[in-house]
């Protein structure tokens, strides 16, 4: 990293878990991709799923592909940070690779809804940073859902109701980013990540570092 | 502000108090000036003092110049966020202009030592963001104190002891910035300010904003 990289830290650090949630159409995926592409210390969490791999999907990269028996084993052994059933398939976030990354000073990004966030919060409170992304207005959210879906008004109305349900949980998040202008929102999420890395609590090497600074010679 | 200004927020916000502390020679003044010069929402706190104005100093800008009787009145009426005696003079941070700025959604920067920070924390806990700036190494701190002071080794030794005393309070701060490369440190303090402004708790207009987003039509 360059000398002026604001992500650089002089002291060893424990990683953090960054959760991004938003209603569909608020820009979360675009923001996630932009942050991941420019931050070598941040990796995306890989989910486990019981659904079949699609052509081109790689086990351990796109998903961990597991069978239903293994899924229930992992649930019973508390090996998921969060898990859920979506229609006929099961999904979960395995805990072990996340904890290995954190201990190594790397940060992990999660793209989950309010229910996944609540489960993660129960399992890993102190390492968690929760960001909720809001659209700038109802009209703009509607416009983005239409532009994206090319669906009927009825389908969009249902999506708006689902979006409203997701947004009603904004108060369970630490930070709120209103995604009006995309570049601003990306800069804001980057700033949150930079700031959280500089929190005293996360800089586990500080005590020794300050000891050296204060040592009498 | 431009569209891509990461400081921009769509929702009305309560201001925050940003405390920067560091030992002499760690770069605090340079960082403060850089942040203040580029951030229209941030203002420097103005102290009151019983010392006489120096040529060119403007009352209400450089200091509020007050007499000793008024100082003691203000202490008795809890009108200071923090106050201290330095040799024969008294200094204090008047509470009223700070609270007016915060209510107006502006942020106030304080350049105080660990004792001032402790007093402010007792008076205004929830609005406070505390950053401690550390030098990158003892050798570099010594070099900066020499470069700055052109003083005897004895004088520098005393300053090093004072610096060690200040640094021993790092654990009372929320964020730690190690000032190795100045541009990085400025970017890091800016990121902390941006992130703190995006905290849900500070965005007092959020409830109404989300209400509008979720309203059925």
CATH fold descriptor of the domain at 17-45 and 106-212 in chain A: Rossmann fold
CATH superfamily of the domain at 17-45 and 106-212 in chain A: P-loop containing nucleotide triphosphate hydrolases
CATH architecture of the domain at 17-45 and 106-212 in chain A: 3-Layer(aba) Sandwich
Multimerization status: homodimer
- The span between the termini of chain A is 33 Å
Shape of chain A: globular
Tell me the strand order in the biggest sheet of chain A: 2-7-1-8-9
Percent strand of chain A: 15-25%
Tell me the number of helical segments of chain A per DSSP (H or I, 4 or more residues long). 8
Number of strands of chain A: 9
Output the CATH class name of the domain at 17-45 and 106-212 in chain A.
Alpha Beta
Overall average residue pLDDT of chain A: 90
Uncertain segments of chain A: none
SS-derived structural category of chain A: alpha/beta
The H/E string of chain A reads: EHEEEHEEHEHEHHEHH
Helix content of chain A: 40-55%
Most strands sheet of chain A: 5 strands, parallel
The whole-angstrom Rg of chain A is: 19 Å
